[in-house]
Amino acid sequence: MSLSTNVTSMKYNKGEGAYKNWVVTEEKFDPKFLGKCEAIFSLGNGYIGQRAATEERYTNEVRNLFVAGTFNKFSENEVTELPNAADVLWMDIYLNGELFNLKDGKIHEYQRYLNLKDAQLVRRIKWESPLGELFELKFLRFISLADRHVIVNRVVATPLSGVACVSLTSGINGQMTNSGAQHFIEGERRLYDGTYMQLVQTTSEAEIDFVFNSTHRFKLASAPIEAPAALIEMERRTIFMNYQPVKVAQNEEFVVTKFSTVHTSRDNDLPFATYDLEKLREYSLNHIKEISDIGHCALFELHKKAWDDLVWSKAPITITSDNEFDQLAIRFAQYHLTVMTPAHDNRMNIGAKGLSGEGYKGHTFWDTEIFILPYFIYQKPDVARSLLEYRYNTLPGAHKKAQGNGLKGAQFPWESAWMDDGEVTPVWGAADIITGKATKIWTGFIELHITSDVAFATWQYYQITKDQDFMDKFGYELILDTATFWASRLEWNEKASEYHINNVIGPDEYKEHINNNAFTNYTAQWNIKIAMAYYEELKQNKPTIFAKLDEKLDLTTTYNIWEQKVDKIYLPQPRKEDLVIPQDDTYLTLPEIDLTKYRNQENVGSIYKDYNQEQIISMQVSKQADIMVLFYLLEDLFDSDVKKANWEYYEPKTLHDSSLSLSTHCILASDMGDLEMAYSLFRKATEIDLGPNMKTSDAGIHSASLGGIWQCIVNGFGGVRMLNGELRISPKLPDAWSKLEFQINWQRDLLKINITKDTLTIHKATTVNEKVNLTIFNEPYSLIDTLTISLK
After folding, report:
1. In a domain, 627, yes or no
2. Active site members
3. Angle between the 555-565 and 543-553 helix axes, to the nearest 10 degrees?
4. What is the span of the domain harbouring residue 120?
5. For 369-396, what is each residue's pLDDT tens digit?
């Protein structure tokens, strides 16, 4: 094992008192490993996401600021991506004329930490300059959850060796790129009232206007002071202030607070009906004036309150564990699930790296529907609805993709961006280790299961929330339209007298151009069957909605096609000799190799150092869970013997080279009663971003894995499942846990759940429904107020 990526400076036990298990800490500065903390310490509010680069600049840094939904295409031969917006963070700080930089001088003390509870990033340093002078510096930063447009960062500089002169250069840098691609046309720069800097930029292809504003406020010895004399400078795509030095006494604090705002023409909260750039500039200028007058402390208190009201009090999870890291891990997951999710706008969705890095270009995958959405369905149904409305809003792109393939209905893109972008999966990827050529990315062409994933998520949301308004406006149509696609994609096999789905990629992306992927075939049939059920329901009980959808989707004709085909879809069955279900037509016939080296790998994807994709396709090795995901989503179709047999066959062949894989295996291990294995997999999932490997998160955090961590806890160890519209709770705590507390929303009622080794207590905290019917370990119960069940 290489020590280079595992000599970690990360600590997870530094929080004390009210902040115990709330703090993620970096205890050593290492310029070789900037990416780890830039990603996991990223700040945001679902509208803005800012990677946690430092105020001072370093060679290997990646400075990112993203605004959700602002996709742009750099050139015709590329796909759309979230543009890296202007940097409002940077400050060049001079201490007695020496530019502060941790690669120079000497670091005596260093600590940087993300306080998850307050959503604040703090850095504390004791630094000796190359001249031998000692300074203490403190950096504080937050992006407001109370006001989505606001970014605040503060620097406190204290001379420790004697009187010192402190000066700085700070402003707005619009020279940023996405790995070299510049998405913005240069706009006007202007200084207002000698104080407020403004930079305007417009994306080159989508023509989205961005307006950035920054201003500074100063304190000396805890008292506000006038801004030092400054020279305003404007260079290409930049505007900044050069402030003159301020004399600071020994042990006296000099404080600079930088207030910044970001607004775009795509915002859905603009106070004027007709968009005009000049109106946006004036509005944003007034906004920066207002927030800078409110001040750092008041803004921070509003921000903290928003986090408590919207996250920590609304979706509390308490784990009493021998390993306190477990509690920190779920809070870390909930933190990032909040900062990555554009809950404010149903035209937008969640990127595979959230808003924490350029990985996957900000695109949305099946990650949302299968791995992230359950958190919001059970904890914040309004946000889950918005995320599903995004899929409805992208139906034109789904129709376009189906039509381009000569098919009908809605075929959702494997990667999605803005509503009318359609398929945005890149065509070419990493180098082929054998040929030296770029590898073709086939997922955008033939990974079809995203379509049934959207249908499943729509159905799951409705069953858990009973949001009839959503179904009437969006849900029925999504399910019916996706089923239409599947019926048109089926291929008749004359020899077998059945319908096949050929030339696909299933969840296991190490297998390309395969026929009859089990996950794809089963979920396609499920999609059609549920659509048929809703067809009958609408026709009988909702004639107005039926007539509207019949006219739009030609349901009467389509239903006849479903009826003819649905029971003739080939579904791979367990083999008689060992109950193993063929993952596809050829998987079980492929040669096996010794996977020990890759199962024990330090970095995922190491198999590509020895084999290319064509070779990997031809051996029994899986990137991630495939049939296991099927067992999780459609668990009632398979008995426990079949699940166990397939686990024993496929798990040793699975490298978990996707961050989506570990959580699924954790939940299934819990279902099978192997709690030692389940807990081990849970811990591995938590360490994808928080673990000792200092390179795993360079491209951004792993959003699906963070949703999966919540599912491990609530759906796995907590035993919460929705099964055919009914609630089941069958908890199985791992040995390390003595207590688990959480709450869920179930069909508009709030249920508070307390699990110990001995008892399960469920309290219905609201009275929307007279009672909740549920199953606990296969026994039916009715919950009216509080239910306590012995687990002994």
Report:
1. no
2. 509
3. 80
4. 41-312
5. 999 999 999 999 999 999 999 999 999 9
